[in-house]
Amino acid sequence: MSGYILCQTKKAEHPYFVESISTNIYTIEELCYYLYHNLYLVDQTIINEDLCKWLAEELELTQLASKLRQAMEREAGAEEILYPVFKEINYLTYEELKALNGRLTELNKESTAIRKKRKGDALVENGMYVNAIRVYQKLLDQTDFSKERDGLEARIMYNLGCAYSYLFQMEKAMECFWNAYSRSGTENEKALKAYLLAYRSIRSKEEYAHRLKELKISEELRSEIREALNHFSKIPEKQAETDSLDVMLEKLARDYHRSTGS
């Protein structure tokens, strides 16, 4: 899959619309790319009769459409759904197919809550922040996290805050970051830092100073926040504009989200 892949089949006159990421797909290559890079978004919203009809009528891949229909009727697993699509044009190399097998094996071992969280994460990566917020919020409302380990609820809350920050809904982002910090045993300094940055973006300098004192924030963390503010605003903190704070928080959230995969 490295390098360029030339289209081996016709291009559809009418695209297949992938609702989850608001994207039109015109070729089997594009479909393969989407499926390979978005395993957690592969569900009935894309694998359905409409897709089969599109494959048969627009791309003239009637045999592939038939295989997918049969797999759907059996309520087959992801492997039986994905492999025929990839094999139609030999999209994956042998090594990539092995890697995909490993990813699917790990996916099948994950709890429902973790899979839904990763679906939200995939939506965030695709810029579908509103859809991601719906997934995260529904997960938080319906899941008993007492059975989950490794602070899953706090990680979901943090990522929910990231999604809100990308939409510049800083009040909601601030609340989520605080909840993430509280639910992680107050040991998550990243969540605390994001909370304080969000707080600074929507509160006055005096309120921010009072909050730092109230929370007994260490001088080390205060210094880190000042450096972040100065780096993104390019001017002293006392003159920082709200827009600069919002952009800075958004980048912090993105970098943390991508570097940790949390």
Global morphology? elongated
Domain count: the total is 2
| CATH architecture assignment of the largest domain | Alpha Horseshoe
CATH fold call of the largest domain = Serine Threonine Protein Phosphatase 5, Tetratricopeptide repeat
Secondary structure class reads mainly alpha
| Secondary structure: helix percent | 55-70%
How would you describe this structure in keywords?
262 residues; mainly alpha; Serine Threonine Protein Phosphatase 5, Tetratricopeptide repeat; 2 strands; 66% helix
Spell out the blueprint of helices and strands.
Blueprint: E1 16-18, E2 23-25, H1 28-37, H2 49-57, H3 62-73, H4 78-88, H5 94-109, H6 112-125, H7 129-142, H8 152-166, H9 170-183, H10 189-202, H11 205-214, H12 219-233, H13 242-260
Antiparallel strand pairs: 1-2
Would you mind describing this structure in some detail?
- This protein is 66% helix and 2% strand.
- The protein has two domains: 16-109, no CATH class; 112-260, Serine Threonine Protein Phosphatase 5, Tetratricopeptide repeat, CATH 1.25.40.
- A hairpin with a 4-residue loop joins strand 1 and strand 2.
- The chain has helices at residues 28-37, 49-57, 62-73, 78-88, 94-109, 112-125, 129-142, 152-166, 170-183, 189-202, 205-214, 219-233, 242-260, and strands spanning 16-18, 23-25.
- The protein is built from 13 helices and two strands.
- With 262 residues, the chain is mainly α.
- It comes from Blautia luti DSM 14534 = JCM 17040.
- This is Tetratricopeptide repeat protein.
- It holds the Pfam family TPR_8.
